[in-house]
Amino acid sequence: MDRTELGSTLRIWRERLRPSDVGVPAGLRRRTPGLRREEVAALAGVSVDYLTRLEQGRGPRPSDGVLSALARALRVTDAERDHLFHLAGSAPPLPGRIRSAVRPSVLRLMDRFTDLPALLLDAKSDVLAWNPMAVALLGDLSSIPPTRRNIARQAFTGTHRVEFYAEERERLDRALVSDLRRSAARYPADPGLQRLVSDLRAASADFERLWTLRELDERHGDTKRIRHPELGVLELDCNVLEVRGDDQVLLVYSAAPGTPAAEALSLLRVIGLQDVGHTSTDYARTPIQGQDITQGGR
């Protein structure tokens, strides 16, 4: 591990980003170039002290998960991500492994969803990115540790769950397990997916029951009822947009014009973003608190 070069690289890549690149308000008192350390730390889900020590060349060796999170936060290219892994003394993700790097073009697309909640997931259901409306609807995603920022883990063993109607929970659980079984067939050697399935089979009787059924659900969209603490139950359409080549999906929640849910989303854009604005103004920043994205099966 080349701590000095790793630290310098992280600092330079942080300073080359503009606040507008990641949806952070520049403010009137910004005196340093690029993003502040606390902004990158929030985007990556690490502490400011940890990032400071890394940039100063005195931090511990980052895990692969932290390196991937830093690469996403800094909006790096694939070549730069691999370089970051090499500087940390780690092997970059191999072909045949689940891709968790997020294309800048996808993040730019999410920028445009200013009035719709959107979440980006990889093939093992890790939450890679989200927008401010997702935080307003579902809660602060950064409150979930990055290692547990996974909708399957939260659905079957997590604490960030909302009450779903009984008939919906079983249906959505089946869809989520079906997605994981398909991914396991596509990525039989991916260690992260293997560990996820093994952990869930050991920890959740419901997951083990559904996993052994070997069902495959063909649905790629859904209507979900989400109970918001202030706005009540919202019935929203959930559309799934596939990111071809990366095996990632973008979940976008919407409602038909003129419906109570559409009015609630409009209200949420005003009051919800004000509530979360002091903690999160962008994606890839903050995990779910008090609401359930865990039932976002495709």
Low-confidence runs? 276-297
Number of helices: 12
The multimeric state of the shown protein is single chain
Global outline: globular
The residue fraction in helices comes out at 40-55%
Which class do the helix and strand fractions yield? alpha+beta
How far do the termini sit from each other? 39 Å
SSE string, helix = H, strand = E? HHHHHHEEHHHHHEEEH
Rg estimate, integer Å: 19 Å
Number of strands: 5
What proportion strand?
Answer: 5-15%
Q: Strand order of the main beta sheet, please?
A: 2-1-5-4-3
Mean of residue pLDDT values: 80
**How many strands, what sense, and barrel or not for the largest sheet?**
5 strands, antiparallel
Pfam families: HTH_31, MLTR_LBD
InterPro entries: Cro/C1-type_HTH, Lambda_DNA-bd_dom_sf, MLTR_LBD
Domain HTH cro/C1-type: 34-81
Organism: Pseudonocardia yunnanensis
Characterization of the model:
It is built from twelve helices and five strands. α2 crosses α3 (48-55). The model is unreliable at 276-297 (pLDDT under 50). The chain is α+β, with helices and mostly antiparallel strands and 298 residues long. β4 and β5 form a beta hairpin. It has a five-stranded antiparallel sheet with strand order 2-1-5-4-3, sandwiched between helices.
